[in-house]
Write a structure and sequence with these properties.
The chain has three domains: 20-111, Integrase, DNA-binding domain (Double Stranded RNA Binding Domain), CATH 3.30.160; 116-194, DNA polymerase, domain 1 (Orthogonal Bundle), CATH 1.10.150; 220-382, Orthogonal Bundle (hpI Integrase, Chain A), CATH 1.10.443. Helices cover 45% and strands 9% of the residues. The protein contains 16 helices and seven strands. It has helices at 20-25, 83-98, 103-112, 116-126, 133-151, 161-169, 175-194, 220-232, 236-248, 252-256, 289-301, 322-331, 341-352, 357-364, 369-372, 380-396, and strands at residues 33-37, 44-49, 54-61, 68-75, 263-264, 269-272, 283-286. The strands form two sheets. A four-stranded antiparallel β-sheet has the order 1-2-3-4. Strands 5-6-7 form a three-stranded antiparallel β-sheet. Strand 2 and strand 3 (54-61) form a beta hairpin.
Length: 412
């Protein structure tokens, strides 16, 4: 059968119909590749390589800039595209081109589009440096363990609401962690919107797992056992961190990063810079006598001119406290107790002593009164004692006074 195709798109005839046998007979070049054009539609062709591989392609010129492009359709063969399938695809491409489209340029743009992994890198570079050390650590861990394995290879623009919901459901055995992962995804895609990688946030609207506020405080007996366990613990540096957490109600990161220039031992004040607080605001904290005693002892030891609790690495603060805290709690026979519960215990002691919510909030460094309101129920005992006093006074009002009996005088 004579070959009716041409290597010039301008000379291609519309009656030059491709067929499987014709394609098979197309001669291969000695090197590189050669393109044979068909006339229906314009630009439809077969590329033949020196190795004999035959691939359907579409040749066209971009109307907006005059750039010549060659768009691959697919390989011809038993497991590849048929002539009929390739021609139909070529006609669809031709319609896009005639309408001013650029199929190959769009394909290049799609391949170059940022992935979720790229967005995560940008998030770590731009957003994490301004966050607290603990937050940076947690965000990186969630990205590494959950977000990137599930979404990392997807294009930012292609991620769907269902993808985030599926990720959330996959962590059903860790409901709180699942919620935190979705929150991180929401922050990621908000950054993606700002960078014009997409127009919406696919994490928005994902139903979160219900969370109950944790209310775990040390009882008086547990407080005694904890104090005794801290006194016996071999690593007194870690024990002092735990003591200050309980004595100040500060967050773990705030105590671990405490610096001597921020502590005024004479005035008995700890000034937390905004860079170390959750609210990003300077927080001035009066120190009680027990806390000052711990700090004076540490100052006398002269372990570091900068950090109150220096770490093993030069110029770095202590950061590993969980292991010591777990061992101390085990020795004190205290169960279901977390480091942050020391802060709750501090607040509970203040509330039980009858101090007001504004005072407690000021000591804890809360930015919103609603945050401190979670401790309101702890006022039951002092309030009950106060109202009982009123009840006793009211109940006694109007009652006859007790009869006074005069005792006989001596010698009378």
């Amino acid at each position: 059968m004579p070959i009716r195709l041409t290597d010039s798109p301008a000379k291609a005839k519309k009656d030059a119909a491709l067929g499987a046998r014709l394609i098979k007979d197309l001669p291969a070049p000695e090197r590189g590749s050669k393109i044979y054009y068909d006339g229906d539609p314009t630009g439809f062709a077969v590329r033949v390589t020196a190795g004999g591989v035959r691939t359907f392609v579409m040749s066209y010129t971009v109307r907006t800039n005059g750039i010549r492009r060659l768009r691959k359709i697919g390989r011809h063969g038993p497991n590849g595209w048929t002539v009929t399938e390739a021609r139909a695809e070529a006609k669809d491409l031709r319609k896009q081109i005639d309408a001013g489209g650029d199929p190959m340029g769009e394909l290049h743009a799609a391949r170059a589009a940022p992935t979720v992994a790229d967005l995560a890198d940008l998030y770590c570079e731009e957003r994490l440096p301004s966050k607290r050390p603990k937050t940076r650590e947690e965000d990186r861990a969630m990205l590494r363990l959950f977000v990137l394995p599930a979404l990392g290879r997807l294009k930012v623009a292609d991620v769907q609401h269902t993808d985030i919901a599926k990720l959330h459901r996959g962590l059903k055995d860790r409901p709180i962690r699942a919620n935190r992962v979705v929150s991180l995804c929401s922050r990621l895609f908000n950054l993606g919107i700002r960078e014009k990688m997409r127009l919406d946030n696919p994490a928005r609207g994902v139903e979160r797992n219900p969370e109950e506020r944790r209310e775990r405080y040390l009882s008086q007996a547990e407080l005694v056992r904890l104090t005794e366990a801290l006194g016996k613990y071999p690593n007194q540096q870690a024990a002092d961190v735990i003591r200050l957490l309980l004595l100040t109600g500060a967050r773990r990161g705030e105590v671990l990063s405490m610096e001597w220039p921020h502590v005024d031992l004479e005035a008995g004040v700890w000034i937390k810079p905004g860079a170390y607080t959750k609210t990003k605001k300077l927080h001035r904290v009066p120190l009680n006598a027990a806390a000052l005693e711990v700090l004076v002892k540490l100052k006398d030891q002269g372990l570091s001119e900068r950090y109150v609790f220096p770490g093993r690495r030069p110029g770095q603060p202590l950061h590993d406290l969980q292991r010591a805290f777990t061992r101390v709690c085990k020795e004190a026979e205290i169960e279901d107790f977390r480091i942050h519960d020391l802060r709750h215990s501090y607040a509970s002691i203040l509330a039980s002593a009858g101090l007001s919510l504004p005072v407690i909030g000021a000591l804890l460094g809360h930015a919103q009164p609603s945050t401190t309101a979670r401790y309101a129920h702890l006022f039951d005992d002092p309030l009950r004692e106060a109202t009982e006093r009123v009840g006793a006074i009211v109940s006694s009002a109007g009652k006859p006074a007790a009869e006074v009996i005069e005792l006989p005088r001596k010698g009378a």
